[in-house]
Amino acid sequence: MAKIDLPAVAERIGSDYPAPFEGAVAGRVQLALGLAGGLSDFGVNLVRQPPGSWSSQRHWHSAEDELVYVLSGTLVLATDAGEQTLRAGDCAAFPKGVADGHHLINRGADTAVYLAIGSRRSDDVCHYPDIDLRWDGASDRYTHKDGTPYAAAQR
Predict the structure, then answer these.
(1) What fold is seen in the domain 9-122?
(2) Domain locations along the chain
C-alpha cells in the first residue's frame, strides 16, 4: 500500500486518559496515518487541535522518541524550561529517556494542524510529572504513580 485513503482513516477524538485528566484534550482529533499505512516500527499521526485544547497532559517517554512538525496554526510548547511558540514550519523533538515533560497548547483562534511522529515501543513507560498518572506500555494501562490502576484504564 503506498497511498493512504485519508477519508477512510478513522478519527480518534479526545484521549483515553482516565478521569479527571481527559478534559483538556477533549477536542483533539488524530488520524493514525502510520497504522493506516501498515507501519509497525513507528507511528505518524495527523493531529487537528482546536483553540483552547491541549495535545496531551504534560509527559515524557522512557523508551520512545517523539517529533512534532507544525503544518498550520500556532501552538505553545510547554516544557520544564518554559514556553515557546511553534508556528507552521516549526518542529520540536523529544528524545526518549529525557525527563522533561512536554505538551502543546492551542491558545490561538484557529485550529492547529501538525504531524506527531514517534517510535512504537512496548517497553515504554510514559511519565506525567504534573499529575498522578503513569502509562505502562507492557500492560497498556494507565495507573497512579504508585502502580494502582485507574478504573477503566485500558487504552
Answers:
(1) Jelly Rolls (2.60.120)
(2) 9-122
Whole-angstrom Cα distance, residue 79 to residue 44?
22
pTM to 2 decimal places: 0.92
DSSP one-letter string for 26-39: TT-EEEEHHHHTT-
What is the strand order of the sheet 133-136 is part of?
60-61, 125-128, 133-136, 141-143, 149-154
Grid cell of 119 as nine digits: 517510535
Spatial contact of 29 and 12, defined as CB atoms under 8 Å apart: yes
Cell 505538551 -> residue: 103
Phi, psi of 34 (to 5 degrees): -60, -45
Taking the chain (155 residues) in runs of 10, the rounded mean pLDDT of each run is 90 94 94 94 96 97 97 98 98 98 97 96 95 94 92 52
Q: At 78, which amino acid appears?
A: A
